[in-house]
Amino acid sequence: MAKKPLDQIFEIHSLAGETLALQAILFGILPKLAALSPEIRSAMSLGFDDAANMVEQIAIKFGDQASPAHAAKALQIVEGLRSSTVGKGDKPKHGV
Asked: Would you say the C-alpha torsion 6, 12, 18, 20 has a positive or negative sign?
């Protein structure tokens, strides 16, 4: 059974709300964790490298089936969260 347009719009808005909530939580918590010690900050920086690499690998794996805008937005979010959490560093790890 196909969804009605209003159901789809509601679902899109619900997903956008969930995404916003998760981003707000991460932006609130991660900088505080990074400030606890240089070791935690370093581990988080490596985790952001892993996250950016994962987004790139998924985009490569799905190629034409994946939306370039989707991958670009995902990288933008990872790099924005990296910047707010562990700082910009000496050089960008990934282009956005």
From this structure: negative
